[in-house]
Amino acid sequence: MAPPKKTILIVEDEPHIILGLQDALEFEGFRVVSTSKGKEGVELANRESADAVILDLMLPDTNGYAVCEELRRWNPVLPIIMLTARSQESDKIRGLDAGADDYVTKPFSVNELIARMRAIFRRAAVRPAAEAVEIGEARINFASHILTRRGEEHQLSFYELELLRLLVERTGQPVSRDEILQKIWGLDASPTNRTVDNFIVKLRKKIEPSPDRPVHILTVYGFGYKLVVERGSSA
User: Which domain holds residue 110?
Assistant: First the structure.
C-alpha cells in the first residue's frame, strides 16, 4: 500500500503562480490545497493537516507575517516558506522573526521550491539516534521539538530542529555550509545565500550563554560550522 501523499498548502493571491506551483507539485506526487486569503489559509492548514506551507507575503485580507504567526501558534514546527516580491534584508529578517523557515523572492524557480519540499520531507523521515541531547545548559528534546535552558522553554521550528540535528549527528566535526544547504534546504550554495547563517544566529540565541561569543556552535571560517558539546571547548 502506497504511503499517503504529503500535503502542501499554497497561500497566494496570484492565480498563475498557484496554477504553476500546483501543476508542478502534483506532478511530483504531492497533494496540493490552495487559497488566496490568509485567514482561510490558517483554517486550511488545520483542516487539511498540511505538511508544509508556501506563503505569500502580500495577501488581500492580511499580510503573510500575521498569517505566519498564527500558523506558528497552531503548529510550531510546520515548515513555512515565505514567498514575496520584496528583497530587502529587513523584510527577510522580519519574516524569519515571524516564524518563517525560509524566504524566496519572486521571480523564483519552481524546481528550486520542489527541491526544498523534497529536502523537508527527506529530513523529516530521519529519526534521531537519541531522543534528547544536552548542549551546555541547553537540553533539546527531538520528540517534542523543545529546547530548555535555565528553566525557559523554546519551541524549535522545523529548520532549526533539523539544522541542530545535523550538527549533533556530526558533533565535533566541521560541516560545510554547502552540505547544510543541500541536506536541509535542498539548495545549491551561492555567495549571497545567508540562510544557514541566519539560522545559526537563531540557535545561538537559544543555546549559547553569550551568543556573540559562542562556545558550542562554532564558526569554521571559510567553511561552515561545528558543534562542540562540552562547555568551554574552543575551535
Answer: 7-124
